Amino acid sequence: MRVDDPETVSAAPDGRPAEAQPRWRRDFPVDGPADEFRSRREFTGLLLLTSLAFAAGQLWIVGLRAFKGAHGSSPVLDVAGVDELPPGGMKVFEYPTKADPCVLVRLADGSFVAYDRRCTHLSCPVIPRPAAGRLDCPCHNGHFDLATGAPLAGPPRRPLPRVTLEIRRGRIVATGLSVEGGRRAEAS
Amino acid sequence: MPVPESHEFFIDPRRCIGCNACVQACTECDTHKGHAMIQLDYVDRGASPQTVPVVCMHCDSPTCAEVCPADAIKRTGDGVVQTARKPRCIGCNNCVLACPFGVPKMSTGMNLMMKCDMCYDRTSIGKKPMCASVCPSQALFFGTREEMARLRPASRVLNVFRFGNQTITTRVNMLVPGQAFVESLDVLSALHEPAAGNDAAENVLLDGMEAPHAG
After folding, report:
1. If we measure between CA atoms, which residue out of B166, B183, B27, B79 comes closest to residue B174?
2. Which of A10, A166, A30 has its CA nearest to residue B66?
3. A27 to chain B: closest CA residue
4. Could you say which residues from 142 to 171 on chain B have a Cβ atom under 8 Å away from some Cβ of chain A?
5. How many CB atoms lie within 10 A of CB A55?
6. Subunit contact A30:B78, Cβ cutoff 8 A
7. What is the nearest CA distance from B51 to chain A, expressed in angstroms?
């Protein structure tokens, strides 16, 4: 008698066929091949591997960021004219590549700030609220300080990457991206 | 590698000489070092020195596994019922109480049910179980049915047991006299039979008690 087939139900004491047996007999089979057994050691191994994968992922992200920061000068992008935006006005642009959405906002005091639009929590686009002095992420109710990009409330823990701005001959020019935040470009 | 289909385990109680060699050999099995998973029972100790080795019968419907609330007792693909799985066994003793052959043993130190696994580490690579390899009288035998028929022409092989209405066939075979035309061994009815020597022993006792009155 061989029961290598996992579908085989062992002979029950009442001698009836497998189809006539109650459900629990299939759930708790006597035969080893039909049993889905995971030992504690296997489970611990799974946990360990998962942890290692997470750790490797984190290291990868850190390395990627360091690599990006070390190589290449940031492109220069003409974003808008200084007079184009009234205080409280905003303009959406892409920087440093076409795949990176950013937003330029003119604050009430006339200065300009620009941030990466992707929330640092789960990359939802943030919405500037110049009147409230905040950037809001609608997905999970995250809030950032409009002046500095620092997270104020909600799930995000890291500040929004800030676009470094310069005023060149009456034009707002993006010159770089700073993860820690940059200088404010004063329109004077 | 599984236990070869053709190789079976045979017990011939009539050949057992009570030497305990199997018990000693069993303690040396790698899967349960130091613990004997075979036992030597006296059939009727008061009347006869006859002993019978008791190993796991490896039932096709193992009662021990059926009653296990922790789903710990499993049978391998080739029909060998194994010791309870350590991470699952809760040491409840259900299997010990339920087994009609009285085989499983509770190891209280390890809180684990242990039982004969037909020396799976050996038989699965083609060797004989420890007990069968040392038995001087071949009361325990591991081999093919053809070998058995050749060696014991006067005996018949039987592996069907009846417990009331339940019939259990086992992977381990018993040898019965060739002229005994039974299809199965009815274990329960044997329990109700008075033992062979009891009457004689009672008579001796009664005689002894009546003697002073008579005198």
Report:
1. B183
2. A30
3. B71
4. 166-168, 171
5. 10
6. no
7. 30
Amino acid identity, position B70? A
Q: Do A35 and B71 touch (CB under 8 A)?
A: yes
Is A2 within 8 Å of chain B by CB?
Answer: yes
Amino acid at B133: S
pLDDT score at B186 = 84
What was the pLDDT predicted at A1? Answer: 46
* Burial class, A78, CB count within 10 angstroms (exposed 0-12 / middle 13-18 / buried 19+): exposed
- If we measure between CA atoms, which residue out of B2, B127, B113, B122 comes closest to residue B62? B113
Mean of pLDDT values over B90-98? 93
d(CA B49, CA B1): 40
Q: Phi/psi at B142 (nearest 5 deg)?
A: -125, 115
What is the per-residue pLDDT for B163? 84
Across chain B, which distance is largest between two alpha carbons, in Å? 73
DSSP symbols for B90-118? ----HHHHH-TT---EEETTTTEEE---T
pLDDT, tens digit (0-9, with 9 covering 90-100), for B142-172: 999 999 999 999 999 999 998 888 888 899 9
Element (H, E) at A55: helix A40-70
Say what percent of chain A tops pLDDT 70. Answer: 86
Residue A1 and residue B79: Cβ atoms within 8 Å?
yes
Q: What are the distances in angstroms from CA B181 to CA B145, B185, B186?
A: 19, 11, 13
Q: Are A133 and A109 in contact (CB under 8 A)?
A: no
Angle at B5 between CA B3 and CA B166, to 5 degrees: 100
Q: Does B3 touch chain A (CB under 8 A)?
A: no
Better-scored residue on pLDDT, A39 or B153: B153
Does any CB of chain B come closer than 8 Å to the CB of residue A18?
no
Nearest CA in chain B to A31: B75
Residue B43 predicted with pLDDT over 70: yes
Please list, residue by residue across A28-40, b when 16 or more beta carbons sit within 10 angstroms of its beta carbon and e when fewer do.
ebbbbbbeeeeee
